[in-house]
């Protein structure tokens, strides 16, 4: 595969997939604003290499930002190729072995699997070509980005955080953002559900200081593996070896016993002391499209920093979808479909995690349904499996339909038997979910479209709408295709939807999505993102006697019963930085001017100067 990150970037440049920015650009907001404009270009735009970051190191962003670049990062022609390889591997491993000859035929496969296992490197390690110890081990050497003006500071956004289970010695490489606190300290944002947090608790129980090594760059397969939803105690570097088709070479750290990839661009060695008081981390403009709320997290202390001579600092910029992380989620969807089918839910034929759901909020599952309740059984199994437990809204569709072709599913959605095939449940949420009043726990909804359809409705709507019942505006553009009517009202205003429907003579509507008045100008895709993100089904979803489903996805003002104690703003850049990038656009050499996406979303802000 790749000899390092620069090797990958050279491939992207040869293929016309990378643009260089020669002008000096600030790591505080400016790089992020440029990146977001590029990432929201058709097809995900290009990868960007900022050659002058104000430090010794260039910065690369959006390198995974298209399906082609994501596949190339894993050494594939198509993202689905890895999933097909895993499916073949699992079928080979689980096939019956009745004779001794059959068992002998397994030996080449087992030998191949052994070659994926990580190995200790004996030679010089490229990641140690420059070594900084003591006071020289300063995080200020790195061009760490501050992406937005409302972020709490600079954040490392593509770290591979390497830890060990002190009881079993099992290794983990997870991706947890890190807020820079000082020259040699950072906040470690690992959620309670993550393996890094579990390792931390084990070190705390043991009363010992926890060694941690943070790596950046190297073969891009390492970065992907750190994001992958692997079971506990499954080595991420084994997955990287499988994807690379050769083992990851590891080298021991200089100041602790952890092993890290020898070809990484940066290694930040250090420790977390479980006896130390946690620190306030955040807010941060996250992949959900909202600023994640500040909370208490452990402190990481730096003991050494080592780098390659030709090191490139990798960063990702996230926010309102679509962004680069959507392509990482697509790779996960394709790669992990086969294990889900083989090990958890064999009736699943295909699945999609639409961009609008920011990886967790929406899932579409195609399944071979043979008996009543099978869709519910499948949903309950997925809601208890790995990162699928964070899912909020799930659609189950018959086998043979393409879950990625949402337009083709519209007739099914429109004729759904919402009175009998809509199931509400409760379960685990991502800690980043802001709509629930109980962090990490909330409502879930399954709409079973594998069941017999209900009667087709013939909706009646006027050509124009009269504001009534607290509703300011309506949009029936999705009514005849999806059966959905969008209504818009102020977030802190009592509404009477029935009064609005009566005054306007509206009838036979299947779904009503109620959004903030400021969302009226958004596209269908953006409205679905907002509706899923700003709602908790157990509080906000209701079904009337006629089967009309209403979801109140307006912003939830804190202080009201059942509302979260804090409700964040959508992720936008500061107006001053957007204006700066407008003025400097020609200097960047990026071709045709691209306007700031933030201007489209700025009306959604609940406050111009505060998080909420």
The secondary-structure class comes to alpha+beta
**What's the end-to-end separation, in Å?**
46 Å
- Shape descriptor: globular
Q: How many strand elements? A: 30
Biggest pleated sheet:
9 strands, antiparallel
Give the overall average pLDDT. Answer: 91
Tally of contiguous helical segments: 19
Instruction: Work out the helicity level.
Output: 25-40%
Indicate the low-confidence ranges by residue numbers. Answer: 102-107
Radius of gyration (CA) equals 25 Å
- Report the sheet-strand fraction: 15-25%
Summarize the structure in words.
By secondary structure, this protein is α+β, with helices and mostly antiparallel strands. The strands form 7 sheets. Strands 5, 6, 7, 8, 9, 10, 11, 14 and 19 form a 9-stranded antiparallel β-sheet that branches. The protein has a 5-stranded mixed β-sheet with strand order 21-22-23-25-24. A 5-stranded mixed β-sheet has the order 26-27-28-30-29. Helix 4 packs parallel to helix 11 and helix 8 crosses helix 9 (236-244). Residues 102-107 have low confidence and may be disordered.
């Amino acid at each position: 595969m790749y000899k390092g990150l620069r090797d990958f970037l050279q491939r992207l440049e040869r293929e016309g997939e990378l643009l260089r920015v020669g002008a000096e650009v600030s790591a505080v907001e400016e790089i992020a604003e440029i990146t977001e404009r590029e990432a929201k270009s058709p097809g995900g735009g290009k990868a960007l290499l900022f050659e002058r970051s104000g430090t010794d190191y260039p910065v690369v962003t959006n390198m995974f930002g298209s399906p082609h670049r994501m596949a190339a990062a894993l050494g594939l022609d198509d993202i689905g190729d890895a999933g097909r390889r895993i499916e073949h591997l699992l079928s080979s491993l689980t096939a019956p072995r009745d004779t001794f000859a059959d068992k002998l035929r397994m030996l080449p496969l087992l030998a191949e699997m052994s070659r994926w296992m990580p190995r200790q490197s004996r030679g010089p390690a490229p990641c140690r070509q420059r070594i900084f110890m003591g006071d020289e081990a300063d995080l200020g050497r790195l061009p760490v980005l501050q992406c937005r003006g409302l972020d709490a500071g600079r954040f490392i956004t593509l770290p591979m955080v390497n830890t060990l289970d002190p009881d079993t010695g099992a290794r983990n490489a997870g991706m947890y953002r890190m807020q820079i606190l000082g020259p040699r300290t950072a906040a470690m944002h690992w959620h309670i559900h993550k393996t890094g947090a579990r390792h931390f608790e084990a070190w705390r129980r043991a009363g010992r200081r926890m060694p941690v090594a943070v790596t950046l760059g190297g073969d891009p397969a390492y970065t992907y593996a750190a994001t992958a939803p692997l079971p506990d105690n499954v080595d991420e570097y084994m997955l990287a070896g499988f994807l690379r088709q050769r083992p990851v070479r590891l080298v021991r750290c200089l100041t602790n016993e952890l092993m890290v990839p020898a070809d990484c661009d940066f290694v930040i060695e250090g420790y977390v002391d479980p006896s130390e008081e946690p620190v306030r981390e955040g807010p941060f403009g996250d992949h959900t499209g909202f600023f994640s709320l500040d909370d208490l997290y452990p402190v990481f202390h730096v003991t050494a920093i080592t780098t390659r001579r030709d090191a490139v600092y990798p960063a990702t910029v996230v926010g309102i979808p679509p962004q680069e992380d959507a392509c990482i989620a697509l790779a996960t969807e394709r790669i992990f479909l086969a294990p889900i089918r083989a090990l958890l839910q064999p009736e699943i034929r295909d699945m999609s995690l639409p961009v609008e759901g920011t990886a967790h909020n929406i899932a579409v599952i195609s399944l071979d349904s043979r008996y009543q309740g099978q869709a519910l059984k499948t949903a309950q199994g997925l809601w208890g499996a790995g990162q699928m437990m964070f899912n909020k809204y799930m659609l189950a569709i018959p086998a043979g339909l393409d879950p990625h072709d949402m337009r083709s599913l519209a007739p099914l959605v429109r004729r759904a038997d919402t009175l009998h095939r809509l199931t509400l449940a409760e379960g685990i949420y991502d800690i980043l979910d802001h709509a629930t009043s109980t962090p990490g726990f909330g409502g879930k909804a399954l709409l079973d479209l594998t069941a017999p359809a209900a009667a087709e409705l013939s909706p009646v709507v006027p050509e124009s709408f009269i504001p009534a019942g607290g509703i300011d505006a309506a949009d029936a553009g999705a009514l005849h295709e999806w059966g959905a009517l969008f209504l818009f009202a102020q977030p802190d205003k009592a509404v009477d939807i029935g009064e609005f429907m009566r005054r306007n003579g509206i009838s036979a509507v299947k779904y009503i999505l109620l959004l903030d008045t400021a969302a009226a100008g958004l596209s269908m895709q953006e409205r679905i993102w907002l509706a899923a993100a700003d709602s908790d089904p157990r509080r906000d979803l209701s079904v009337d006697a006629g089967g009309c489903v209403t979801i109140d996805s307006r912003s939830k003002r804190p202080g009201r019963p059942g509302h979260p104690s804090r409700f964040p703003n959508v992720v936008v850049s500061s107006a001053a930085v957007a204006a700066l990038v407008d003025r400097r656009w020609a200097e960047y050499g990026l071709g045709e001017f691209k306007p700031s996406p933030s201007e489209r979303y700025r009306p959604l802000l609940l406050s111009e100067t505060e998080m909420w």
